[in-house]
Amino acid sequence: MNDWSLPRQFAGESPYSTAAQSTQSKTLRPRLEDADTVGTSICPFCAVGCSQLVYAKKGRPIHVEGDPRSPINQGTLCPKGAGTLGLLTSPLRLNYVQYRAPHSTKWERKPLDWAMERIAQITKRTRDETFTHTLPDGSAVNHTLGIASIGGATMDNEENYLIKKFFGGGLGMVGIENQARI
Known about the structure:
Elements: H1 5-10, H2 23-27, E1 37-42, E2 51-57, E3 60-66, H3 79-82, H4 84-89, E4 97-99, E5 108-110, H5 112-130, E6 131-134, E7 140-151, H6 157-170, E8 173-178
Parallel strand pairs: 7-8
Antiparallel strand pairs: 1-2, 2-3, 4-5, 6-7
């Protein structure tokens, strides 16, 4: 017997039916039925801030789509945003800190707390060693040329403002730049 809806309709089923059904389509289930959690997120690829819905099963993401409640993207995602699931689930993604000591030829796995403390200590040491209070003519500058910051395209205006205030005003960095070109 042919399983297409048109032959079935000619065989006596309602000719007004617009539902094409087959044996296979009757067994299909909604693709997100297995999700046990739905969370919200922000797309990581640019500073627009598109909202996303992240569907997960047993703590692992299985699907990402635009959040229709968002006034920014209204449920849509650009091609980069639509690729967020690949970013989250790639077998090449590192989910831990890798450290290579000076002059070493190998990488070591380190705890995140260790890495954050090391970054803070090196930043403080470098700032203290390179900080200039005044120029030779006596002009106050209170800055360091020993460290700098470069931001990424995912930072929005508010984040850049805070970075400028903290790094420039707090640490005295002069070299603060943002790579906002995508």
